[in-house]
Amino acid sequence: MKKWLFVLAALTAIILLGQLLQEQKLEITSKHGEVDHNKKIELVAIEADQVHRGKLLLINAQSQLSAEGIAEDIVEFARDQAAGAGFALENDTIMLSDEVLQALQKMLAAARQDGLEGFMLTSGYRSMEQQAMLYEQQGSDYALPAGYSEHNSGLAVDISSIAMKMEVAPEGAWLRDHAADYGFILRYPPNKQHITGIQYEPWHFRYVGLPHSLIMQEHGWVLEEYLQYLAENPNLSVGTKDGHFTIDYYSYSSDLLIKLPSDASYTISGDNVGGVIVTSWVEGEL
């Protein structure tokens, strides 16, 4: 009898361990400057404006968006297109980075598969001129000056529920759980106002791309905290359920040469503060 109890306990432990490993999305290790001698790299000089371009830009009261930081692939999406994709627009059209729009449509399609069909997009890209007008009309209690709003970048979108407030809507709960899987973060979560300077906005989602969104969700970080972490841990290896990423952070200087993998895909983004982040992965792993 004792033998069977021991076997049962062992099997239970194995099952629980398996469930824990399945639930854990990420495996993050710091490389601490380790060199992979088998990795093919090329050294590339970086222009100063790269610090202010990319998907990981910090845009807040201390870090103004420059013209270089506006996404170059801004597209217009109409109400009939949105209806065909299964969600609503508050206005006749919305503008966003095309990369962001593609990820957004994929995310909302997944939500529909889970039975949620009440999403409405209320705001996307705003030009500097539109932002200045909005700030003049609404004041600092309800709007930000031109260049200090994430909406000026084309990387942010406000998503609402057609039925109720997002903080209590099932659409809001689904996005809080799943947006990171598609490269989005809830930019202004509760209890982080002392860091972001912005009160809780359950509708405001920012695209940062993978695996950065997953890392932030895993640790409960906002963008300010994540960028600080990268500056302090500049060489990361990140394993996700979809593949393996390498993240390298560089502090910008005029003579900076960054290492780019010649046998892998990569993106380069500035942080809008003084750093450059290279994210690389091998095609076929994702």
TrEMBL record:
GO terms for molecular function: carboxypeptidase activity. The keyword Protease applies. SUPFAM superfamilies: Hedgehog/DD-peptidase. Residues 95-209 form the D-alanyl-D-alanine carboxypeptidase-like core domain. GO terms for biological process: proteolysis. It holds the Pfam family VanY. The keyword Nucleotide-binding does not apply. InterPro entries: DD-CPase-like (IPR052179), VanY-like_core_dom (IPR003709), VanY/YodJ_core_dom (IPR058193), Zn_M74/Hedgehog-like (IPR009045). It comes from the Bacteria. Keywords: Carboxypeptidase, Hydrolase, Protease. This is D-Ala-D-Ala carboxypeptidase VanY.
